[in-house]
Specification:
Structural Genomics Hypothetical 15.5 Kd Protein In mrcA-pckA Intergenic Region, Chain A, 12-stranded mixed sheet, alpha+beta, 4-stranded antiparallel sheet
Length: about 375
């Protein structure tokens, strides 16, 4: 038995973002190996990627750090084992981001959203409040006060890049979260195994994802299977490293089908199916085959960043004491055209096959689709 999500009555939700977020608190308990360090020594050694020396000194002297609940402004204060340190990051204005979300599918176990380009999924970096997760939490809070029902805590079970639009699947219960997360993990884990490509290309697994994208240049072949591994390299502004095409990376599989070739504009409209889910996989794989996403500010031919030159971090710092934003592009930068268009999965509790479709942005329509829509 199967069903398809029906756009019919399009439901949307979203609360406009406050001008400033609520700030953040970071808590640490001093370990034995850290005792007898000074306060400034602790933060500059443990969180050196957060701010330079002068930035941490500013934060301490501003009274943003407490030890066991007491504000301490002397950076040379010696720490004792077991003490609780709290750094309070002051509220700041996050960059502009959309706040409205369209509901594509909704039941007691899960909800599928049509995420707009420009909205981050989970908190990270300068986006701590302006995320999908925040809007989900606000919506759940409204519903739990309006209805006599068990309070739900919907959370995304996978990620889409900030510049990527389309289907984002979220779980409402712990059971659904566990099972949906397993679907995504299983699809990735099987890549590189002994199964043949035809089986991997099929939808025999628990989940299948189909994307629409606009790439630079004209693909020679109408179908391309990409099995380039993906790993990380050091990159300014990305603490955990930037994902790139790497022979020593983890296995990844993308199947690319050409939909239309635009010779005059020198770009190609493609459909991409993935079952593995490495970060930025489609962007990296298409760049690896010499056809990066049109408008991608970060990835160039070969699946590498456009610039590998490492920036030297100096003692200059932003208003909040942290490092200034890198001048080079970072993964969250937008400008490319990639849309999670279709998702087919087994329902986490009923096993019913569910097909969810996110309407395409007009720039990703085929000529035939454009004609049909104009006729309606």
């Amino acid at each position: 038995m199967s069903s398809t999500s029906q756009p019919g009555q399009s439901q949307t939700f979203g609360i406009p973002w406050p001008d400033l977020n609520d700030g953040l608190s970071y808590t640490d308990v001093v370990r034995l190996s850290e005792s007898k360090l000074t306060l400034i020594g602790f933060y500059t050694s443990k969180y050196k990627s957060s701010a330079p020396l002068q930035g941490w000194l500013q934060r301490i002297r501003n009274g943003q750090i407490t030890i066991d609940g007491r504000v301490v402004t002397d950076p040379d204060t010696v720490l004792r084992v077991g003490s609780e340190l709290v750094y309070q990051r002051l509220p700041w204005k996050e960059p502009d981001a959309p706040h409205m979300l369209e509901v594509l599918y909704d039941d007691d176990d899960m909800i599928a959203l049509n995420k707009p380009s420009g909205l981050q999924v989970l908190p990270g970096g300068i986006f701590q409040q302006r995320t999908v997760l925040t809007q989900l939490q606000w919506q759940a809070s409204k519903q739990s006060t309006c209805f006599a029902r068990q309070e739900l805590h919907p959370v995304p079970v996978h990620r889409l890049g900030r510049g990527t639009s389309g289907i984002l699947l979220c779980a409402k219960t712990k059971l659904a979260k566990t099972r949906l997360a397993t679907y995504f993990a299983d699809g990735t884990a099987h890549i590189g195994g002994s199964r043949d490509i035809n089986k991997e290309h099929g939808t025999s697994g628990k989940i299948s994802k189909l994307y629409r994208a606009l790439v630079s240049g004209i693909l020679d072949n109408d179908k391309v299977v990409i099995k380039q591994p993906i790993g990380t390299v050091k990159y300014p502004g990305v603490a955990k490293g930037l994902y790139v095409a790497s022979p020593s990376g983890k296995p990844a599989l993308s199947i690319v089908d050409v939909l239309e070739k635009h010779i005059q504009g020198q770009h190609t409209l493609v459909e991409v199916q993935i079952q593995s889910g490495r970060p930025h996989q489609i962007r990296i794989h298409l760049a690896f085959i010499r056809h990066p996403l049109l408008g991608d500010p970060l990835y160039a031919v070969g699946g590498q960043p456009k610039s590998f030159d490492c920036e030297v971090l100096d003692d200059s710092f932003a208003q909040d004491g942290g490092y200034k934003r890198p001048t080079k592009p970072i993964p969250g930068d937008c400008g490319y055209y990639l849309h999670a268009h279709q998702l087919v999965l087994s329902h986490p509790t009923t096993n019913e096959v569910i097909k969810i479709i996110a309407p395409l942005p007009s720039i990703l329509w085929t000529q035939e689709e454009s004609k049909n829509i104009n006729l309606e």
